[in-house]
Amino acid sequence: MIVQIQEESPPCFFSFLQKRSTTEATVEVHSVKVDCTVTSRFAHTVTTSKALNKANFSQEIFFEVELPKTAFIVNFSMEIDGEVYVGEVKEKEKAKKQYDQAVSSGRTAGLVKASGRTMEKFSVSVNVAAESNVTFVLTYEELLQRKLGQYEILTRLKPKQPVHEQIVANIYEPQGLSFVDAHATFLSNELLPLVEKTVTDNKAHISFSPTMDQQRKCPDCDGTLIDGDFIIKYDVKRAQSLGDVQIVNGYFVHFFAPPDLPRVPKNVVFVIDKSGSMRGTKMIQTREAMLAILEDIDEEDHFALIQFDDRIEPWRESLSKATKENVAEGMDYVRNISDRGGTNINDAVLRGVDMLIKDRQQKNLPERSVDMIILLTDGMPYNGECIHLPTIQTNVHSAMGGNMSMFCLGFGNDVDYSFLDVMSKQNKGVARRIFEGSDAALQLQGFYQEVANPLLSEVDLRYPDNAVDSLTTNHYTQLYNGSEIVVAGRLMDNDLDNFIVEVFGQGFEEDFTVQGQASAVDWDMMYPDEEYIFGDFTERLWAYLTIQQLLEQSKTGSPEDKANATAKALHMSLEYSFVTTLTSMVVTKPETEDGPDSPLIADKLTEEQRQQTERSDFHCARHSNVSPAVDGDPHFLIELPDRHDALCFNIDDKPGTIFNLVREPTQGILVNGQTIGDKKIPPDGKINTYFGRFGIVHHILGVRLEVSTEDISVLQDDKLVQLLWSDTASVTGPNMDLFLTKDHSLTVSLKDSVKFVILLHKVWEKHPYHQDYLGFYTLDSHLLPPTVHGLLGQFYHGIEYEVSDLRPGEVTEKPDATMYVKGQELNVTRGWQRDFRRDVKNGDNVPCWFVHSNGTGLIDGDATDYVVSGLFKRD
To answer: Where would I find the VWFA domain in this sequence (predicted)?
Structure first.
C-alpha cells in the first residue's frame, strides 16, 4: 500500500478543473495512519489521512493508496468540514455510463490503476475550500495466501514529506503463531528501533510511529527517509493433521496444511518457447532459470525438456529420472537453446502430454506420483496447423483428460494472458505472469519452488451434508509444501455435536485420511481485553473466497455455467459491498465554485487490463513521456502517459502524397509514409486516405526498408531480403532485427536506437470501397536525440501545453476547450482515437484533445511542409 498526499499542481489533465494554480499553495498533512487487523488470515485494512488547506483560496488535494491486487475495496469516504461523502458500490455496467460521460468531458474518472506487479493504486482528488480540513478513509479486505511457508502483509509508504505517520497491525491467530517478522526496505540503523513488536502465543502487535524529526534526511531537510515497503511476515503453528476450523456466527472456515508429510515425486515436462521474440535477454534469463531449476530438482522426480518454435524439438523421446548424470546432460541441452522461428504452442504441449501418457502406460513412472506440464512462452501461437486459441485449449484439455496439471508462465507484456489463464484452469493448474526485468529468472525459479514439492494429490475435504451448505471449493488436485487449502461454508444450524470434518488425499506411500470433531473457539475468552469485534470475519472471509472462485469459474465451462457464475458473483459483490471486476465504487465529490463535479469511479482491474496498462507503460513510459503513432485515415495520436493525456489530429490530402514522419540528421534516420485512398468514391463522396507504404532508412547503419500492404523489402549490408505478410519470420543482422508476425505486425529494432512497429490492417478483399492499410507506432523514442523532427518525430521528446475553459461542443459527448501551446491559443475538442497495438481489429479507445485543421498550431509549420518527393527522399 502507498500513502501519499500531494500539494503540487495536478497533471495537466486536471488543469481545467481549477481556476488557480496550486504552486503557491500550502497543504499541511496532519496524519497518515494504516491500521491492519488480521483475524485468522483475513486482513481488514483502514487507511486514514487528514490534511488542512492552509491557503486563502480553494485548491485540489490528492490522496493515493496502493493496495494488493488480491484485495477488494469495501469502503471509501471523504469528510470535508464535517460533511461526509461516502462511496457507493454499484454494478459496473450501471456505473459505466457515468464513467464514459466523465472521460469524454475530459475528467479523469478512473480511480484505480495498475501499479507494479502485485499492487493497484487508488487515487482521488477533491477541491478543498480555504483553511478547511479534509479526511480520507479507504478500507479494503483480503484473505492472506500462504506461499513458501509464510503469510505476508505489505504496506507501501511514499509520503514525499515528513508527516505524522503510524502503521499498526494486530494479528489474531487462535491456531498459535510460530513466528512473526517485521522489516522495511527503508529502515536505517536509526529507524530500526522504532519498529515495535509484541508477540504472544496467539496474538501479535506491530507498530511503527516515527516522529517528523526522525523521518527527516537531515535536520533542515524537507525530504523524508520513509520511502518504500513495510513488510510483515508470519506463520502459524500446525500441530493437528486435521488442520484448524474456526466457527463464528453461523459460518466456518477450515485451514488445512498438515505438518511433516513426505513429498510426492513429480513428473514434469518443461515446454520452452524459443521463437524469435524470445531473442536476447528473455532467452538468457530462461536458460539461467532452467539451469537453476534443474540443479535443484529432486532425484526422485522425472523430467523432460521440449523446446519449440515452428518446430518441436524434444531433448529425449521420454522422461528421464533426475539422476546426477541426466540432470547434467539436461543442463548442457538447456545451455544450447537458441531463439528462432515462430510459435507452435499446440503441437509442443501435445507432444509433452503424449510423453507423459506413454511413460505412464509403459510403467516408467512411479505409480504414486504427480504429472505436470510447465509451459513458458512470451507470445501468441502463430505457427502450426492450429493457431485458433479456443481450439488449442480444447485440444490440450481433451489430451490431458484430467490426468495431469498444466502451469503456464507468460513472459513479458505481449503474451495473451487470458488464453494461458483459461488453459491452465481447464487443466488443474494456474497461470502466472513473468514480468520483464532483471529478476525474471528469479520469478521463474520462485514459481517453480511453489509447485516443486507436492505433498498430497486429489485432496477431498468433507463436511456433514445436513450441517453445512454454500461450501467453497472443497476438492483440490494438489497440496504443495508451504501452501494451504482454505474451505469456508455456512452452517445450517448451531448444533456442532455432529459437525465431523474428514480429509482424504493420496500421499507418497499411502492414502491420507484424518477425521475430527469441529468446535467453536470462545473468542472473548481467548482475547478478553480486545475492543475489536470479531463477529462477522468468517462470513466476510466466506464471501470473499466464494466471489474469487466464482470469478474464476466464469472464465471456463459452458456459456450457461459462466453466466450463472457471473450472476452469483455480482449478487454477492453488491451484497457485501466488495469492489470486484463486476462492480464499481462511485464517489460523488462535492460541488465547487466551478460547478458540479462528475462522479469518480473505482474499478477492480482484470489481469488483462493490468497487462494492457503495463504493456503501454513498458513500451512508452519506462523511458519516455510520449508515444507517437499514426493509424487510420490517417489519425496522428500523441500519447503522454506521464500526463495521463493524449493529443490527436488528422492529415487530409490526396492519395499518393508522401509525408515525412521522422527525420534525424545526425544518425541519418528517415521515415516517410505514402497515402492510399479508397478503391472508388463512396456514396458520401468523401475519399478516405490511409498510409499504404512506408520507407525507413538508417544511413549510418546501412539499413533500408520498404513496407507495403503486400510485402516487405529489407536491404542490409547490401543483401536484399523479401518477406510476405503471410509469413511469420525473424531477420537478425548486426545493425537491425526484424520480427514479422503473420498478417499482423512488423517490429523493426535498429541497433542501439529506436524501435518501430508497423501494423497491417486487413480489410475484406471484396469490400466495395476500402482496402488494406498500415499503422505506424514508435517505441523507445527517447533513444533519439533532440534534433529529431517530422510529423511524428517533433513530439518524441514531449510537448508543453495547457488546457482550460472547458465548454459545450457541437456534440454533447465532445466538449470544446482552449489549448495554449507553442505560444498559440487553439480551439480543441475532446474526442477519441484508437490505438491498435493490443487489438489490431478493434483497437483501444484513447481519449485525446483533437486539434483541428490538419494539426495547425500544434505541428511546426503547415502539413504541406512535410510533403516529400519520394519514399526515401528528404524533400
So the answer is: 267-451
